[in-house]
Design a protein that fits this description.
Shape: globular
Largest sheet: 8 strands, mixed
Strand order of the largest sheet: 3-2-1-4-5-6-7-8
Strand content: 5-15%
CATH class: Alpha Beta
Order of helices and strands: EHEHEHEHEHEHHHEEH
Radius of gyration: 17 Å
CATH architecture: 3-Layer(aba) Sandwich
Number of helices: 9
CATH superfamily: NAD(P)-binding Rossmann-like Domain
Number of strands: 8
Amino acid sequence: MPRWTETDVPDQRGQVAVVTGANTGIGFETARVLARRGATVVLACRDPARGGTAAEKIGAADTVRLDLASLASVRDAAETIRRRYDRIDLLVNNAGVTGMRGRTEDGFELQFGVNHLGHFALTGLLLDRLHDARIVTVSSIGHRLARLDLTGDTADPQRGRGDAYSRSKLANLLFTHELHRRLRAAGHATQALAAHPGGATTEIFRYSSPWFRVPNLLIARLLGRTPAMGALPTLRAATDPTATSGEYYGPDGLLEIRGYPRRVEASRRAHDPDAQRRLWEASERLTGVKYAI
């Protein structure tokens, strides 16, 4: 099969794309390519100054302040986007943190709160602007290490940092599959897909312990896994006309660490329909966001 690269991204003129965490790393590269292909790109970033600098570099149309560790900020960002745009053609739930302990403003374990709950809330609050659109949520190969226990305290900051990250990335996939199912059941034309970058030299490891951060960055660098390469699975899920709802994209190389994007399979736990439903119900309860589907 031919290698899929950013040159395969089709014309995006007339499309409105919202990318979270777009001021750096994979989010920046995703936004850059979409803008280069003609999309109106909205950079949803925690730091307005860094978001503005990134927007200038890539010629993005707009920036919105979004702190996924605060549900109030998520609501404000969603309202701002809704006020400025009548429709959204692409929502990329990219932003994420790893290696951090603590709680969000609303009391959730930080990585679960930012990586999953914040994006769950944002997607639900923007859903009525998403018509015949795509929602792409960025997960990780680390999801394979996780077991999501919804009977326990998902806000417990004393859980291992690596374990918390893996659980949040499993949650991204459970969310995507349940969103896909609910959209189809409602006859909604919008599609829900997921992607993972494999290894990549990005800032996501900056809060990780040195024993975890250094080897990950070294391996990614040795394998040539730049942020631009890491963004390719997201871009394929977001723009490839042959990609369909419910699919998951990642690198095609050994252990999905390196290579060019193709359709991949998530873990067995990510396909558990009961876990998908229970996570959805818990997420609605924790965020107070009810989906209109």
